[in-house]
Amino acid sequence: MPLTDGSASNQRVALNLKGVTRRFGSFVAVDNLNMTIKTGERRAILGSNGAGKTTLFNLITGDFPLSEGSIEIEGVESSTLPTHKRIQAGLRRTYQHALLFDSLSVRDTLLLAVVGIHNKWPLFYPLKKNSKYHEKAEALAKVAGLSSKMDVLVGALSHGQKRQLEIGIALSGDPKIVLFDEPAAGLSPAERPVLTELLLSLPKKLSVILIEHDMDIALETSNIVSVMHNGKHLLEGEPEEVVHSDIVREIYVGKRQ
Amino acid sequence: MSRTLLLIVVILIILPAFISDFWLNQILTRSIILGIAALSLTFLTTYLGVVSFAQITLAGVAGYTIAYFSPNTTGLGIELPWLFAVALALLFSTLAGAFVGAIAKKSVGIYSIMITLAISMAFFYFTRQNYSIFNGWTGFSGITAPVAFGVSLEDSLVFYYATLLSATAAGYLVVKFTSSPLGLAVQGVKDAARRVRAIGIPTTPVIIAAYAFSGFIAGMSGVLNVWQQERISSFSVGLGPTIDLLIIAVIGGMRHPLGAFIGAITYVLIDTFVIDLFSRDRFNMIIGLVLLFIVMAAPQGILGSFLSAQKRIRKYDNNAIKRKIKNDCEI
Fold this sequence. Notes:
The complex is a heterodimer.
Chain A: E1 13-24, E2 27-38, E3 42-46, H1 53-61, E4 68-73, E5 76-77, H2 83-88, E6 91-93, H3 106-117, H4 132-144, H5 159-170, E7 177-181, H6 192-200, E8 207-211, H7 215-221, E9 224-229, E10 232-237, H8 239-243, H9 246-252
Parallel strand pairs in A: 3-8, 3-9, 6-7, 7-8
Antiparallel strand pairs in A: 1-2, 1-4, 4-5, 9-10
Helix pairs in contact in A: 3-4, 3-5, 4-5
Chain B: H1 2-14, H2 21-48, H3 55-68, H4 82-104, H5 110-129, E1 140-141, E2 147-148, E3 151-152, H6 156-178, H7 181-197, H8 203-229, E4 231-232, H9 239-252, H10 258-277, H11 283-297, H12 301-330
Antiparallel strand pairs in B: 1-4, 2-3
């Protein structure tokens, strides 16, 4: 099945998916999917709507339980772990449709992301303004380009700014694997290069899985590409190779007459 | 807003010098006690996004605890030093809040209402039918407020100030709690529970903590209520007071902790003076009409409408200033 390995074989495995399956009644959304993500790997997942890409993300994070198969995060069997434990293990994600706290400010949202990762959320008294958690939240805002919006309510942010905030949240703490679910969706042509730059500037040791319909962003920021169709992992390989494969052409354009 | 709050507190401090004992006891003190109970409800509604019918139950848990461990004329209970009794009352109401939260943790909307209503009614019938702890139908009477730090809380002025202090403390606690990490997580659960889990925070303990905190606040009002009324029975935790609390919260508005107190004083004024204007039997009609009016004309409650109006006036003022500057520049 694989065209090429795509990255050095001696690298550590960050995420290992074995026989991952999810059924909704008789419909199989993700079908016996195997995938190995190595540390530092940048993988784009391509596929038409309904291919099962977002469902796969929901299975990896534990938003949905698996019907079959297993998920290992950093070598630890995590199939039955609740979402927050997987996050504590180094997994992060963004959502296709920004899922944020509209009634909180950007500052409070990022602060919550920081205290969540550092397990300080049970504190029931306000943190000092100069605490290290506030500093970390400020740093995240800087990475996400939202430093000037710290006191704005999230509900009042523009679509693009919400996307930036999603990324800021996903980078809190010390992430090991980040799942980006269509980060460019709804962004203007001017905002897209900023996103590309942000994705390219992520730390080298970070493993990234990216679902993206914008081929330019997906191919520019990844070193390995997977193709999903009808819940199956059809093939994986280097970006150029995959894009020119007949299977991908069939999925996106249709069979040659 | 904080300056307004300070002004309100200052007015409330000097007010007893100008009003009769009746107004002090039956209007002000009673309103503040009801306001604290309503605050425990508006906290849950505003920040966790659930409507709980169990707040009177939580206040009742604290009320029965203080009755059981205080001197009373019922001949039931164990007398403890008042500080211990208060600590136990608040502990039990907090634990009861956690218990309600653990049961209602996955419910929102009509389901949280139904579950908390069921808990509230179960507690009502339990107190009514149990005689060994709750003394059944008749409950506890003759409970005396203690002498605290050399001053008797039976003195109406002292009790008023103790109540005012408690209300200020409750408001302060709510404000501080909501800006703490746990309080932010509570608000996060209201907006997007899935996202809270996706930043590494389990939602169940957060929800339970919010209910427990509301139990603590409700417990404060429960203790004060028993000291003021000098009695507690199953009627104190029945459906009537449960619905009254919701009416208070809706009338006052849920956007700001102060709304609970504005709702409470409006309710108490209607409750007290409707007898003089009409008759006791017409109370439900009057409060019903007020509630209808609020729901239809000012869904954010009295305080919410006031704040919106203030915002509109400010915006109007700012626009007027901008026009004036523009005109001046053009000239």
